[in-house]
Structures are given as structure tokens and as C-alpha cells.
């Protein structure tokens, strides 16, 4: 299951739902909550946080937040269709590899980093 932060473009959420994955959208259901609340929501049941907010990297790497999985998108709005295709391909081919990882996705690269336990 994916937990889409409120900054995720609706078209990306719709596309992920279109391939049959469940997406809980913060913008649709819990707009305005703090990042730490998003992290807590991602734990039970376990969900991958999909975000464009670099603060999640700080939570994970500087504050050593554990038991999270993050997909961090970095792209220009004009590249939304292209980043959507990349995200869909990744979710369809490597979903099981993303648990407990911090994954950065750009137009040109995907970087999957294991998180300390």
C-alpha cells in the first residue's frame, strides 16, 4: 500500500490506483497533518510514503526514524507524465524491494538506499 503525502500530484495517485495498488492520499483524507504524523500512519498497516518533501530524508537520515519506507520524487512539474511512468514501472517490477528503503526517483536515475534497522 502507498501513503501519498499531500504534495503528490493527483494524476500520479490516479495512475498508481490504475495499476491496482491501494493508495491512501493525505490530501484527500488528512490534509494539513505534520510529517511525523504521516510517518506514524505509514507504520500500521505498513505503507510506503510517496512524497516530494525532502524533510522526510531529514527525518530518516538525521533523526534516525526507523521502520519506514519512502519514495522521494524529484522532478519539474513539466515532467509529471515522465516521472509517473517511472514510478509505475518501479512499483510494478520492484515493489517488494522498496520496504525499509529510502528511494529517490528522478527523471534520469533511481537510487534505492537501505535504512539502518
TrEMBL record:
The lineage of its organism: Bacteria, Pseudomonadati, Bacteroidota, Sphingobacteriia, Sphingobacteriales. Residues 2-107 form the DUF5615 domain. InterPro entries: DUF5615. It comes from the Bacteria. This is DUF5615 domain-containing protein.
Amino acid at each position: 500500500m502507498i501513503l501519498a503525502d499531500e504534495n503528490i500530484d493527483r494524476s500520479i495517485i490516479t495512475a498508481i490506483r490504475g495499476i491496482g495498488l491501494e493508495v491512501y492520499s493525505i490530501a484527500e483524507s488528512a490534509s494539513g497533518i505534520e510529517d511525523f504524523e504521516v510517518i506514524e500512519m505509514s507504520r500500521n498497516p505498513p505503507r510506503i510514503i510517496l512524497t516530494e518533501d525532502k524533510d522526510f530524508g531529514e527525518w530518516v537520515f538525521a533523526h534516525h526514524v526507523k521502520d519506514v519506507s519512502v519514495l522521494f520524487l524529484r522532478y519539474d512539474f513539466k515532467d509529471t507524465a515522465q516521472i509517473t511512468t517511472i514510478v509505475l514501472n518501479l512499483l510494478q517490477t520492484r515493489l517488494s524491494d522498496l520496504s525499509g528503503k529510502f528511494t529517490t526517483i528522478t527523471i534520469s536515475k533511481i537510487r534505492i538506499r537501505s535504512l539502518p534497522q
